[in-house]
Design brief:
414 residues, alpha/beta, seven-stranded mixed beta sheet, four-stranded antiparallel beta sheet, 16% strand, globular
């Protein structure tokens, strides 16, 4: 696993420093002032700036590196409420960079030396745990133990690997690898399944005809392992009950070979609209989207599905290296609230499975309280009395090198 210190600057040309600093300032402004997600803010900055390909890569890499150090930057002893440019200057200086002379008066706060000293002492004292909130360190240590959390924490400040899922509605993995090679993109097959490949970088891939033809979706290997747990077959009726923008929905459609009925449901209409757009590109024609507006939408489908997927809303703590802003607005209370929602979804959405059918529950969380514990809770409840556990699996970032995921398949009594 390639771990890059988020307090170590990537290679940067002197003439690009001021461009980078402004871009990072604008990214943080979008997040802190306009309350955008990190990926949304980064896309907005890139879309509205005239950057070279190298500058775009530098901005993205530096932006995510800065956000991985957010906990350290936030708790520095600022004399006044810092502005986004002050956070940028502190990260840049901590990482070994030098602010250009003409920008120092504007970017560098007077207490910069004290801020740097405090940050360095915090890292020396806490080690890897300095990059995460105290409440989250305590929760992880309680749930999975200090040693495992230490190893996972190390993996979560790593540069995320880039995985693609072959869209088998259009091609097989070997054809995809050959197509990418024509664009000088080297791809390596992942032996855990027959769809996954790894590439070094995603910089150029979305400008290729390989993307336009819908030959792949970007998806982590652990995430790719969830849909197959449904054991969906052509001609069946499958429900993806928390479909979101459709990453797993498209995978299920490919498994069904576009035959049968695949109902993709979500409470957010804009996500279902994005799913439709992606489905058109992927050539997935057996998908029907349904917006969930009330419990009646669930009751209408009672005992109708051969299998149901609940890709549950969760803390997202299995994908922190991809979304380093995840914990910026999370608290213990917000995770506990999500656990309550997960219980409700299992109790409610399980009713859509026909007798003898299966239910797959998944969460992209490293916390057992959002995985194994939720399945145990459901099976012990009144609604879980007619269910048995077929399979349960956890993917650990520190051990597998993929995102952190949990998946379980339950079977309803005939």
């Amino acid at each position: 696993m390639a771990i890059r210190n988020p307090l170590h600057l990537p290679r940067i040309e002197e003439e690009d420093i001021s461009i980078l600093l402004k871009a990072l300032k604008d990214i943080l402004h979008g997040m802190l002032v306009e309350e955008k997600r990190a990926d949304t803010s980064i896309r907005h900055v890139l879309r509205n700036g005239a950057y070279s390909a190298e500058q775009r890569s530098l901005i993205v890499e530096s932006g995510y590196a800065m956000l991985r150090t957010w906990e350290i930057l936030k708790h520095a002893p600022w004399k006044a409420e810092p502005k986004p440019l002050h956070y940028v200057a502190l990260w840049f200086t901590l990482s070994g960079g030098t602010i250009p002379e003409e920008l120092r008066a504007r970017y560098i706060p007077q207490e910069i030396d004290a801020l740097i000293t405090h940050c360095e002492m915090t890292i020396e004292e806490k080690g890897i745990f300095a990059f995460f909130p105290d409440w989250f360190n305590e929760r992880c240590i309680k749930e999975i133990g200090k040693d495992l959390w230490h190893d996972i924490a190390m993996s979560q400040i790593a540069e995320p690997r880039v995985f693609l899922r072959t869209n088998t509605l259009i091609c097989n993995r070997e054809t995809l690898i050959d197509a990418l090679a024509k664009h000088h993109i080297k791809a390596i097959a992942i032996p855990l399944n027959d769809t996954g490949i790894e590439i070094a970088s995603s910089d150029k891939i979305f400008t290729t005809d390989v993307f336009r033809k819908g030959m792949f979706e970007m998806q982590d290997i652990a995430s790719q392992m969830i849909a197959p747990m449904l054991q969906a077959l052509p001609g069946q009726r499958i429900i993806d009950a928390c479909a979101g923008e459709g990453g797993k929905t498209l995978h299920i459609s490919a498994m069904m070979q576009n035959k049968g009925r695949l109902i993709a449901m979500d409470i957010h209409e804009y996500k279902l609209e994005e799913l439709k757009r992606r489905a058109r590109r992927a050539g997935a024609w057996n998908i029907e989207t349904r917006l969930i507006t009330s419990s009646k939408d669930i009751k209408k489908l009672k005992s109708t599905a051969d299998a149901v997927l609940i890709d549950a809303p969760c803390s997202g703590t299995g994908v922190l290296k991809r979304n380093p802003d995840t914990l910026m607005k999370k608290t213990n209370a917000s995770i506990d609230e999500l656990i309550g929602i997960q219980n409700q979804l299992l109790e409610s959405y399980s009713s859509m499975v026909k007798p003898g059918g299966s239910l797959v529950y998944a969460s992209c969380s490293i916390l057992p309280s959002e995985g194994e514990d939720r399945i145990s809770h459901f099976l012990a409840s009144e609604k879980g009395q007619n269910w048995t556990l077929d399979e349960s699996r956890r993917w650990c970032p520190a051990k597998d090198g993929f995102d952190g995921f949990y998946g379980a398949r339950l079977r309803r009594s005939p």
